[in-house]
């Protein structure tokens, strides 16, 4: 690399509790470049950028900005040097307005009393949003009233408002819709023009290929290589990330049975969705796609009893059921794998054993006392079946990688002998190799006769896994396609409301 | 970090170490951290015992049994407190419940009820007081801190409504068994307290409801979505806390031989301190019965030694405050 590299990180080492997270990492990037950092979960991507943003301290090595060695001790110092990061975890203050959050620390005002000049603040915030192409967000609203995707955009706006020299985007797309993602990409390109260095971390390879000028791949804390998207394809990149070629991504499927297991008729919830009707057969994988916020998750939560619904009927194997709580639903044999495992899928401070057996405490205990040996046997069985690593059932969920955490959540539901499995974004934040494993598991479960409702924003996943695919838009079902009919274009078009 | 290249360690066989780690294991803690958790307490207790050895009085039967009886109240309260802390809450109302049940025990015995009958009623009152806390916290999703501050005041009022003057039961049996009785060299009250710790441990580690309570403190929504009723378990946790407060109240009145309506102010802080010194995390997600016992013993030893060396009680409070800070600081790094 030439000396003109704006950012140079040399010989970076970092370890946590004796685990080497980064090993002699050399990384450099140019100003005015979009540089993607790819790798499986635990490869060290987040650690690397957190060192750059001052959130973590390196053990060894040096960081140069514009050829000058710098100390990035704290996030504040890093920010002074022009390094701003947008993490997956939000740093917004929920009960302050959008404007206050964007202008944090720089609220206009003055006079003797130090009064805030609200009109000017709101105008300034609006300008900032306008400038970067994020329209349709009311700057007077409190952040907690915004949707998750709008919150994400405010978060990005806040970082961009100060015109950073280096902007770190850590999985920015997870909660964004396609349209919002396009706007983000436009912004990224605009910043590149202004010679900002953008470090882009994402699990979605198609996204990386679309936006990045160069891609650096990390594996096990080491740099495997840097490629240009024009010179490589996704397969090669996956090979670099995983260290081997993956076989078929999606499992081969058998045709589903005829017997209807779950029937939903005219399900409605005010302000969320209406007139939702579909059926799910034994051994069938029913895909459900649609933009974030189209009501998919809420439909799932209502069927699972996690939220009340206003009208409609749910039939389980022909029998009407009305789960008023997740407890009811679990008893009826319905399981829900939630979209955000850290928020509501796992108890991170508890062990694999606790997490996996949590939904089956009833059947594992007598007189309130848990039958330890049976618990252990059944958890071990699932740990083996799903290849959870390390296979230590008293390991804390917090200590597992994202993919293994997701498998623990799956194990929890497989232990309940559920008949209906609702999977909401089952491969979000999961590395490629584990993704393939999870697809295999889902295929096996369908083959065993479970009815599976697969909610996903990843169209290839919906197309590759489903026997039929539903599309939701603004709280309504707007399309149903058989495996043969479905295509990415069709699903996208109906999700976006574009007629063909 | 998981990496494909490192060989997966073999599943450890059930060796002797299993029991030790599972007994000492802080709820929700990594195996290798467990000793670190206790290193501080162990070091501190050793230090205290060395100090104690320099005193002529410490190792006398009289002082040791005093020490044990004095730690009973905090020991019992701490167990209830631990259960509420594990759910992510706290029970600040234990002090007035101690006073209420103590004075009711004295009053009812004075009215001619046998001690066991009075005790039974008091335990029910304690459980009821806990149920009031638990009801408001779980049913209306109110903050435990606020609810138990409110009931702390209300329960204290109830105590004075019941009796605004101390009650001294004339019946000698009121003191004889619980307060002054011995089993071998051990005071009855201490035996009761020490027996409660394994029970609480068993509840938290081996029972359905206990595991649910621990998990609720870690992530309430995940527990709800696993099909477990969260309100029911939160209610249970506060009832357990009320139960232990009542047991402590009756035993304390019996030990002193007199029930004061004003007793118990600040008791909740000692109980919280014991839990925290023992590794509990306020807000849930960590804490164990035996860690809490270690915290109780530590605090008890400090009190006892400072008394033996005639340190004024004001200084004792300062010292206790420092110990709590040091204990929390010592553990801070591993988070």
Structure description:
The complex is a heterodimer of chains A (500) and B (335). Chain A is an alpha/beta fold and 500 residues long. Chain A has 2 domains: 7-242, Rossmann fold; 260-496, Rossmann fold. Chain A is built from 18 helices and 24 strands. In chain A, the strands form 6 sheets. A 6-stranded mixed beta sheet of chain A has the order 6-9-10-3-11-12, with helices on both faces. Chain A has a 6-stranded mixed beta sheet with strand order 18-21-22-15-23-24, with helices on both faces. Chain A is globular. Chain A starts with 6 loop residues before the first strand and ends with a helix. Helix content of chain B is 70%, strand content 1%. In chain B, strands 1-2 form a two-stranded antiparallel sheet. The chains are: A alpha/beta (500), B mainly alpha (335).
According to CATH, what is the class of chain B? Mainly Alpha
Backbone CA Rg of chain A: 24 Å
Strands of the largest sheet of chain B, in order across it?
1-2
Order of helices and strands of chain B: HHHHHHHEEHHHHHHH
CATH class of the largest domain in chain A: Alpha Beta
Domain count of chain A: the total is 2
Sum this structure up briefly.
The complex is a heterodimer of chains A (500) and B (335). Chain A is 34% helix and 26% strand.
Which secondary structure elements does this structure contain, and how are they paired or packed?
The complex is a heterodimer of chains A (500) and B (335).
Chain A (H helix, E strand, L loop, with lengths): L6 E10 L2 E11 L4 E5 L6 H8 L7 E6 L2 E3 L4 H6 L2 E4 L11 H5 L6 E2 L4 E2 L1 H14 L16 H14 L4 E5 L7 H16 L3 E5 L3 H7 L2 E6 L2 E6 L6 H9 L17 E10 L3 E9 L3 E6 L5 H8 L7 E6 L2 E3 L4 H7 L1 E4 L3 H5 L6 H6 L3 H4 E2 L2 E2 L1 H14 L16 H13 L5 E5 L7 H16 L3 E5 L3 H7 L2 E6 L2 E7 L5 H9 L4
Parallel strand pairs in A: 3-10, 3-11, 6-9, 9-10, 15-22, 15-23, 18-21, 21-22
Antiparallel strand pairs in A: 1-2, 1-4, 4-5, 7-8, 11-12, 13-14, 13-16, 16-17, 19-20, 23-24
Chain B lengths: L15 H9 L9 H20 L7 H26 L7 H17 L4 H25 L4 H19 L10 H4 L5 E2 L2 E2 H19 L1 H11 L1 H6 L4 H27 L10 H11 L11 H20 L4 H20 L3
Antiparallel strand pairs in B: 1-2
């Amino acid at each position: 690399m030439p000396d003109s590299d704006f950012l140079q990180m040399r010989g970076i080492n970092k370890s946590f509790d004796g685990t080497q997270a980064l090993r002699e990492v050399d990384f450099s990037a140019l100003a005015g470049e979009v540089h993607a950092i790819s790798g499986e979960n635990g490869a060290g991507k987040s650690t690397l950028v957190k060192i750059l943003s001052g959130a973590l301290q390196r053990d060894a090595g040096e960081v140069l900005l514009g050829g000058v060695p710098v100390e990035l001790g704290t996030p504040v110092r890093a920010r002074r040097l022009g390094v701003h990061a947008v993490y997956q975890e939000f740093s917004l203050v929920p009960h302050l307005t959008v404007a206050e959050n964007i202008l944090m620390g720089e609220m206009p005002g003055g006079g003797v009393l130090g009064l805030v000049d609200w009109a000017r603040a709101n105008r300034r915030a609006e300008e900032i949003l306008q400038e970067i192409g994020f329209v349709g967000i009311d700057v007077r609203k409190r952040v907690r009233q915004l949707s998750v995707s709008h919150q994400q955009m405010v978060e990005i706006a806040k970082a961009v408002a100060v015109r950073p020299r280096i902007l770190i985007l850590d999985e920015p797309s997870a909660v964004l819709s396609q349209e919002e993602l396009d706007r983000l990409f436009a912004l990224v390109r605009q910043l590149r023009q202004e010679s900002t260095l953008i470090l882009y971390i994402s699990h979605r390879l198609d996204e990386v290929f679309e936006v990045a000028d160069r891609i650096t791949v990390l594996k096990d804390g080491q740099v495997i290589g840097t490629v240009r998207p024009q010179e490589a394809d996704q397969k090669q990149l996956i090979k670099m990330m995983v260290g081997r070629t993956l076989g078929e991504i999606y499992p081969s499927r058998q045709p589903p049975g005829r017997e209807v297991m779950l029937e939903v008729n005219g399900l409605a919830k005010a302000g969320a969705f209406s007139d939702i009707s579909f059926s799910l057969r034994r051994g069938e994988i029913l895909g459900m796609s649609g933009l974030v916020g189209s009501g998919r998750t809420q439909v799932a939560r209502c069927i699972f009893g996690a939220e009340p619904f206003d009208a409609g009927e749910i039939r389980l194997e022909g029998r009407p059921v009305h789960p008023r709580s997740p407890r009811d639903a679990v008893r009826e044999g319905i399981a829900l794998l939630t979209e955000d495992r850290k928020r509501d899928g796992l108890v991170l401070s508890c062990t694999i054993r606790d997490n996996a057996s949590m939904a089956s405490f009833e059947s594992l205990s007598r007189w309130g006392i848990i039958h330890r040996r049976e618990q252990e046997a059944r958890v071990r069985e699932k740990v083996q079946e799903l290849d959870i690593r390390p296979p230590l059932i008293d390991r804390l969920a917090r200590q597992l990688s994202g993919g293994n955490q997701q498998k623990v959540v799956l194990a929890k539901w497989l232990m309940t002998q559920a008949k209906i499995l609702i999977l909401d974004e089952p491969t979000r934040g999961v590395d490629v190799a584990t993704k393939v494993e999870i697809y295999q598991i889902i295929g096996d479960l369908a083959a065993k006769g479970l009815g599976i409702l697969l909610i996903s924003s990843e169209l290839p996943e919906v197309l590759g896994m489903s026997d039929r695919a539903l599309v939701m838009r603004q709280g309504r079902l707007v399309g149903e396609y058989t495996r043969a009919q479905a295509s990415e274009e069709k699903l996208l078009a109906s999700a976006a409301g574009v007629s063909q | 970090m998981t990496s494909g290249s490192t060989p997966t360690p073999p599943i450890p066989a059930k060796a002797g170490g299993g029991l030790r780690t599972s007994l000492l294991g802080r709820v929700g803690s990594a195996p290798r951290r467990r000793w670190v958790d206790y290193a501080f307490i162990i070091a501190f207790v050793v230090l205290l015992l060395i100090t104690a050895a320099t005193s002529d009085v410490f190792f006398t039967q009289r002082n040791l049994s005093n020490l044990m009886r004095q730690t009973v109240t905090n020991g019992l309260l701490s167990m209830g407190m631990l259960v509420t802390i594990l759910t992510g809450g706290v029970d600040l109302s234990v002090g007035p419940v101690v006073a209420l049940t103590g004075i009711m025990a004295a009053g009812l015995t004075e009215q001619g009820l046998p001690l066991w009958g009075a005790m039974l009623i008091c335990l029910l009152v304690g459980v009821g007081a806990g149920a009031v806390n638990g009801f408001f916290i779980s049913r209306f999703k109110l903050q435990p801190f606020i609810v138990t501050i409110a009931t702390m005041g209300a329960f204290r009022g109830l105590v004075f409504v019941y009796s605004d003057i101390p009650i001294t039961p004339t019946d000698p049996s009121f003191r004889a068994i619980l307060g002054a009785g011995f089993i071998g060299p051990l005071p009855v009250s201490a035996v009761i307290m020490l027996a409660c710790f394994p029970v609480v441990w068993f509840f938290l580690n081996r029972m359905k409801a206990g595991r649910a309570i621990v998990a609720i403190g870690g992530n309430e929504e995940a527990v709800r979505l696993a099909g477990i009723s969260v309100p029911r378990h939160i209610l249970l946790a506060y009832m357990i806390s009320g139960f232990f407060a009542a047991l402590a109240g009756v035993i304390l009145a019996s030990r002193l031989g007199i029930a004061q309506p004003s007793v118990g102010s600040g008791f909740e802080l000692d109980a919280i301190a014991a839990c925290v010194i023992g590794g509990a995390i306020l807000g849930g997600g960590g804490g164990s019965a035996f860690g809490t016992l270690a915290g109780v013993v530590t605090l008890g030893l400090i009190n006892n030694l400072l008394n033996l060396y005639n340190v004024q009680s004001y200084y004792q409070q300062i010292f206790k405050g420092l110990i709590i800070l040091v204990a929390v600081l010592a553990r801070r790094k591993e988070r």
